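Contributing new records

If you add data, match the layout below exactly. Sequence lines come first and carry their own label; structure lines follow with theirs. Keep one chain per record. Anything else will be rejected by the validation script.
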Amino acid sequence: MNVPLPARGHLAALALCGALVACASAPPAPDLPTLGLDQATRFEAAPPDAPDAQMADLRWWQRFDDPDLALWVERALALNPDIAIARERAVQARALLRSAGGQRGLQVGGELALERRSRRNAGTHALDPSAAIDVEWDLDLWGGLRQAERSAAAAVLRSEDLVQAARLSVAALTARAYVAWREALLDQRLLAGALDLQTEVLRVVRVRVRAGLSPQLDLDRAEAEAASLTADAADAVVRVRQAGAALQVLAGERPTALEGGEAVRLPALSGAQTVVRPLNLLRLRPDLRAAEQALTGAAADLGVARADLYPRLRLPGSITLTSSAFGGGVLDIVTASIAAVLDATLFDGGQRRAGVAVAESVVRESLEIYRQTLLQALQQTEAALVAASGARQRAQALETGHAAASAAVAQARVLYDNGLSGFLDVLDAQRSALDTRRRLLLAQGDGARQSIATFEAMGLIEPGAAH
């Protein structure tokens, strides 16, 4: 319902409106939970002598002793579609912020018209031009437009944090995919070497069986072991190709045959693992910052919903210039008007109150999402630190075991060649050595993966270029 105010009350109404605008304020966002964290709090799984994170850790992929790993991560950060999508969403959010800001300003429209008129009795015709300029200003009595702009600004910050979250996720995924590819390559070559060794053993056993020095059972066991290794080697080829394709797609490239080179090794972290303080996750983790901005936006949306409960005051005006079709002058009649219009919804069946209830619930939900995100961040960091420590301990133990298993293989071969032991002892020694070597490879890969997971869980990522 539009209710024009009496002309004599315009000044008083405008003064009252100005006072109301000054009094209108945004509902504050709830205090963020910190779960009792302070600067003295440390992660339980962090080594006592773990150094604090440095600026270099923002490019943590360069802290591994593998330049190829850093190159793959850099390519993924430049070309990955997920990051490009997140950046476009940030562009959209900035455009929506400009739109929200424009709603608070003076709205100006124009109109040009050309009307043809005629007098039948005089037999005359004329073109009657006119021009009009319409203006309108919403006084935003209850701060609804201001809160809508505040919500849009929070959405911009959230979208930028989500770009950082995408960059961090892509960097970690690419680094882990690189480790998986290298691990598969090493396993493939390890199995190929074991198969070559077993082929040589099979040749020796055949000679011994033909000479009557060994039973047929030894030959059957040697052939079964060679067949098993052939099957494992075929599976390793599949894993190499799958891991390579996953790595290339993360880098925004079409999957092709990926060569591993001659000297293949797993990346390892150079130096000690740095660890941030738990409280620092609040500013480092981009998903936590995004959750904070979501809470700020929800509080602003609540302000919009509350402002919608009250009347809206607009100041429309217009200037119209017309000409007399048969008078002579062009645009010789000027009409100007200004009014104050109060829009009020008298009854809506409780829709706006329901909108406020929804907005209040969204604020509470956003607060719980923030708390949940913080809990997950703490859990992920603790889990990564524990797993990294366990991987290091497993690798150290398996290195010792691998040396002993390799020595056992050599001794078993010598004893078998001299007829002092059975072929089963050789097979057992070879299987133990191969199993220990593959477990060592897995532990070393896990160590690299958990170091990557630790950097990711701590939210360490350099700022991306603005787009």
